[in-house]
Hints:
Keywords: Chloroplast, Plastid, Purine biosynthesis, Transferase, Transit peptide. One of its GO terms (biological process) is 'de novo' IMP biosynthetic process. This protein is α+β, with helices and mostly antiparallel strands. It has 2 domains: 4-79, no CATH class; 84-286, Formyl transferase, N-terminal domain (Rossmann fold), CATH 3.40.50. It has 6 helices and 18 strands. Helix 1 (95-105) packs parallel to helix 6 and helix 5 packs across helix 6.
Amino acid sequence: MDAHSSVFGNYSTINSPKTQCYALKPVAFSSSKQVLLRTHLSFPSNIAITEKRLRIRASVEEVHSEIVGPNVLEDSVKVKVRRKNLAVFVSGGGSNFKSLHEATVNGFIHGDISVLVTNKPDCGGAEFARDKGIPVILFPKVKDGSVLSSKDLVNAIRSYKVDFIVLAGYLKLIPTELIRAFPRSILNIHPSLLPAFGGKGYYGMKVHKAVIASGARYSGPTIHFVDEEYDRGRILAQRIVPVLPNDTAEELAARVLHEEHKLYKEVVAALCEERIIWREDGVPLIQCKENLSLYK
């Protein structure tokens, strides 16, 4: 069945019995040179397009799709978004922080770590930040022993034009003032499948020991948004790690940490690319990069 195109103002519509799609420019069709276009807009499979490149402007964003051959799309739809500024909070060695930093440098994450916050000025994460030229803020105390208030912390982070805050092994409760200043913009990672083995007192190796002692067959990292209680914010992503029959806490911790590094990079990348949406009931979802109509 043939597809038909018509123009309404600046928009062209593509009509078929199955679907309707919109583009800013009229689209020409020819039966002599057929190329199937597959994007999240769900075009009908029988539409033939002769243009080498289709440019769609939706709202204020530009979307580019390049067709490289019959039935092949070289890249998924790419949306131009502003590069984001990140603040990372650590209390220890900062392995997740280092992993995230590497991902910002190699382009996997469309953002930059603008500042590090720590309660331990000599921890491995703080040393790494200084080596990379990343400013370090000490909270809750500064070097001379004077108290840095929650309001001061908020102002300090805002001075770096931070878009999102990422907790990576930070063992202090986040001040209410900071949570209210950055709503739905603070992420934490926890080494168990929340809501199990979470809350005050569950951190580090204590989590893995508790998992093994419980007889649980599965564990793994959870990434969640931060609210005013330990480990109670909305869950965004999880990854399952099996608990083996003869696991030690150290062995389980190593496998969970391996998945933490991968999952955190993927989630922060989605955050910076504005691929996190909120369902009406308040549940956050991650859109797939390859097809924005699907969710991870």
